[in-house]
Hints:
Layout lengths: L16 H19 L5 H26 L4 H21 E6 L5 E5 L39 E2 L14 E7 L8 E3 L2 E8 L2 E8 L5 E8 L3 E2 L3 E2 L6 E3 L2 E5 L4 E6 L5 E6 H5 L13 E3 L2 E5 L8 E5 L8 E3 L10 E5 L2 E7 L3 E5 L6 E6 L11 E2 L4 E6 L4 E10 L2 E10 L10 E3 L2 E6 L2 E6 L5 E7 L4 E5 L2 E5 L4 E5 L8 E6 L10 E3 L2 E5 L3 E6 L8
Parallel strand pairs: 3-31
Antiparallel strand pairs: 1-2, 4-37, 5-6, 6-7, 7-8, 9-10, 11-12, 12-13, 13-14, 15-16, 16-17, 17-18, 19-20, 20-21, 21-22, 23-24, 24-25, 25-26, 27-28, 28-29, 29-30, 31-32, 32-33, 33-34, 35-36, 36-37
Amino acid sequence: MADTPQTQSSPRRIRWWPAAAICLIVLARVLWARLAPDLNFQQRNLQTGIAVLAGGGALGLWWLFLSRLRWRLRLLGVGICLMGLLVLVVCFRIRGVSGDLLPIVEFRWRPGFVARQSTNVVHGLRYGPSTNGAWFPQFLGPNRDGRLPGPRLETNWTAYPPQILWRQSIGAAWSGFAVACDYAITQEQRGEQECVVAYELKTGRPLWVHQHSARFNTKIAGEGPRTTPTIAGNRVLAMGATGMLTCLDFASGQMHWAVDVLATTGSSLPSWGTASSPLVTDKLVVVHSGKNSTQSLHAFSIEDGKQPVWSAGNTSPGYASPILATLAGVPQILAFNSDLITSHDPASGKVLWSHPWGNGNDVCSSPIVVSSNRVLVASGYGYGAELIEVTDRNGKLSATRVWKSPRLKSKFGHLFVRDGCAMGLDDGMFAAIDLADGSLRWKEGRYGHGQGLLVGELYLLMAESGELVLLQPTRAAPNELARFRVFNAKTWNPIALVDDLLLVRNDQEAAGIRLAVARPVD
């Protein structure tokens, strides 16, 4: 019998066109996200991430159901992808996000903070400023405005570089340092304990630790407290991330009193934690409450912390700390809330004026007073800045907009005024706008979402990358002068300067840095 020829099936060709179409759609979506003028920088990153993830999922479905490959190859490809994802999950973790909402990835076996025991407690120090009058007792400095008159810093960091006096690991937090009497006090998260810690200013030696059981941590917001303590005489006021307001003895760290602000005011924990650095005025300590609060601002007696002396406002607070200001000749507390700017009488909390604000995004950057009757406010997420004029009409204060500008969008960095301009970080870039009309003067250099201080005519900026930058900004240009690498990780924390000693930290490390002071001009 003759052999019967065997019928051989021709191999199926891969169907490439769906994959190509998916890639083109993703590319178009990414280009739209990067170039869309109505999206802020964070929204562009989010839209890009969504497009890439959606495209990856669509390519997976194509591979599995539309590629025409043999099922053995399809399943093998899926298995390889799943194995790769498993390796990534086992080896890496996401440690929060950058100020532009980009994920920060680290090895899972990276060691965490190991708390140092406080074995040296120093007693008997004089309260108040250090002997030479230099101190930094609260968030943004002595006047809570991010400005210092001096010292006159050396600008040649090549010949006179900054010197790191001490550097050490520290518990997670976005707090800054408050300084008095050679005590540098900050807040930290150490395991399940939320801590207020005092270090020796010039050595970083721990002096005392106060701790209580509380912990705030989310992937986006990060871990630990977010406020800077306030030193008032012989007391330290600290606000934890979960709303615990604590009053401690300055020399020993022993607790005088503590109050759960959220429980007391009937509010709930904000998405990013409570972030109101305590404001001390007269015999009161003033802080914001949490979200869903019927009243946003609360004052407690600094002596005993009993039920609020007053509560005021009728809107949920933002994440900015209140400031004390005098506008139109009237002393007042300015509160930057989620949808209103409110002014309060310091003694009673009475609302003196209010002004609508915001686009529903988080409000973090504190207002700045620019003249005897004008205040500047700004927000990130595409919103911008606004100059507000306060007028006294027959004993009643009112606020009106002078101008609004999208050219200075401060996410949480503090702004400052110099040479008739408002300056600061605009979506991570250093920018200046004219106070006359809000027009852009210049915008240069991407520093991320860091923090800075105006020291005389110089600006010390701690970039988000952990690099210390010295600038001499004018109406004409930012004039970057020098850079000095301190950390190699995300740095959002406010900085503090006492004489020539700069204190910097992030959520992992802290350092004391000696800055050279310029010699007197003959």
